[in-house]
Amino acid sequence: MKELIRTNDPTVIAFVSALLQGEEIDCFPMDVHMSVLEGSIGVLPRRIMVADRDLFLARAILRDNGIDLPEGG
């Protein structure tokens, strides 16, 4: 699994998940339950992981939909 995106914005996580599922790319959100440790203030980023084989296509889908990826992403 490779990290596709990391963000503090839960709406971006939901949007990215929906985009990937629409293209039949399996994704796995990580760090979703970290709010228990942080007190629900949204400080700790959440990540979306995809299979190594899907990383290139998933990055292209995000770029095509206007989601900024970090440098090298």
From TrEMBL:
Which superkingdom, per the lineage?
Bacteria
What is the protein's given name?
A: Putative signal transducing protein
Domain named DUF2007 is located at 1-64
Q: Which Gene3D superfamilies match?
A: UreE, C-terminal domain (3.30.70.790)
Query: Origin organism of this chain?
Result: Rhodovulum euryhalinum
An example Pfam family from this entry, by short name, is: DUF2007
